Amino acid sequence: MNRRDFNVRMLAVGAVGLSATRTVLVVGDSLSAEYGLPRGTGWVALLSQKLEKELPAWRVVNASISGDTTAGGRSRLPVLLTQHQPAVVVIELGGNDALRGLPLEMTRSHLQAMVQSCQSAGAKVLLLGMQVPPNYGPDYSARFADTFTQVAQQHKAGLVPFFLKGIADVPDAPRWFQADRIHPNAQAHPKMLSNVWPELKKLL
Q: Hey, what's the torsion of the CAs at 146, 151, 154, 159, to 10 degrees?
């Protein structure tokens, strides 16, 4: 093989590598949209940095919007799937549904529809489960948390049972939150990524 043939082959290999780049699409709310944080310190940005080092064939698109609900995510999803053609979709929605007192059946229906849309588009799905504070009552709290498990099991999707594990369920929880006591601070976001990564890695 002469030098010219070698260079042509290497250019072809490079082109294949570029075309093989795959996308992780994150559809979430303020927990994923860096609400109240310096740019680049949220868990999605940290995930992007991690993938650049460990799995450079993957890129991250963050389509999260502060205040979004499962209904909002569902309405935005078709365009996002068409635009980005992701191989994996991370769905981090539902917390605002609970804060607004929306019916659990509605939240479940929207999550199911989102998972089905992603899978129909050829993408794997990872659901990030949430929990609500004890003041919502033990029955509602249990049913809310179980919603994510039910949807994941029904559609064979990946699941992180509690996205804020080790942050919101520990005795020193206030130290991990901003002044509003709702949004995790920058110190908490590496922990959030640590909760997501083991399950996400299985899908990559």
A: -80
CB count, 10 Å around CB of 119? 15
For 63, the token pair is 């389509």
139-165 pLDDT tens trace: 999 999 999 999 999 999 999 999 999
Token pair listed for 12: 């072809």
Indicate the Cα dihedral angle 141, 123, 116, 126, nearest 10°. -10
What pTM value is reported for the model? 0.89
Q: Where are the domains of the chain?
A: 21-203
58 beta partners = 22
Q: Which of 29, 30, 64, 97 is catalytic?
A: 30
> Does the annotation mark 139 as catalytic?
no
Residue 97 falls in the annotated catalytic set? no
Give the CATH H-level superfamily of domain 21-203.
SGNH hydrolase (3.40.50.1110)
